[in-house]
């Protein structure tokens, strides 16, 4: 019945640091919408950001917690280019490249953490 993921929400401590990580590190585009809310846009989906100390957006998760997410992103460019870019920009790669299994088959993945400690897996299909 479902077609794709439209968006997910991350609770963050520092909006600017999170925007920098996802835009400078992973090439997402910061988009302001609604009453000054921020989303990180890529492909046909986005990550909405909720600041932990900010005014709560309702409805929301029952226990919004920084650092509890584990997401996998499929790269639009070869993983070797992503790895080189991340290293040039000073981002720490925690693990990889390593073989994993994606939603539709084998993938190769790099793992890093965003400023809130969320695990971010960046992958490419074979």
Automatic annotation (TrEMBL):
<protein>
    <submittedName>
        <fullName>VOC family protein</fullName>
    </submittedName>
</protein>
<dbReference type="Pfam" id="PF00903">
    <property type="entry name" value="Glyoxalase"/>
</dbReference>
<dbReference type="InterPro" id="IPR029068">
    <property type="entry name" value="Glyas_Bleomycin-R_OHBP_Dase"/>
</dbReference>
<dbReference type="InterPro" id="IPR050383">
    <property type="entry name" value="GlyoxalaseI/FosfomycinResist"/>
</dbReference>
<dbReference type="InterPro" id="IPR004360">
    <property type="entry name" value="Glyas_Fos-R_dOase_dom"/>
</dbReference>
<feature type="domain" description="VOC">
    <location>
        <begin position="4"/>
        <end position="125"/>
    </location>
</feature>
<dbReference type="InterPro" id="IPR037523">
    <property type="entry name" value="VOC_core"/>
</dbReference>
């Amino acid at each position: 019945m479902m077609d794709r993921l439209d968006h997910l929400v991350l609770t963050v401590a520092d909006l600017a640091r999170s925007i920098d990580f996802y835009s400078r590190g992973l090439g997402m585009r910061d988009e302001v919408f609604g009453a000054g809310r921020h989303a990180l846009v890529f492909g046909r989906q986005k990550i909405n950001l909720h600041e932990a100390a900010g005014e709560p957006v309702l409805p929301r998760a029952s226990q919004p917690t920084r650092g509890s997410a584990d997401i996998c992103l499929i790269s639009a460019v070869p993983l070797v280019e992503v790895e080189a870019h991340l290293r040039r920009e000073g981002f720490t790669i925690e693990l990889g490249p390593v073989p994993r299994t994606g939603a539709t088959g084998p993938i190769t993945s790099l793992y890093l953490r965003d400023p809130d400690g969320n695990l971010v897996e960046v992958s490419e299909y074979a």
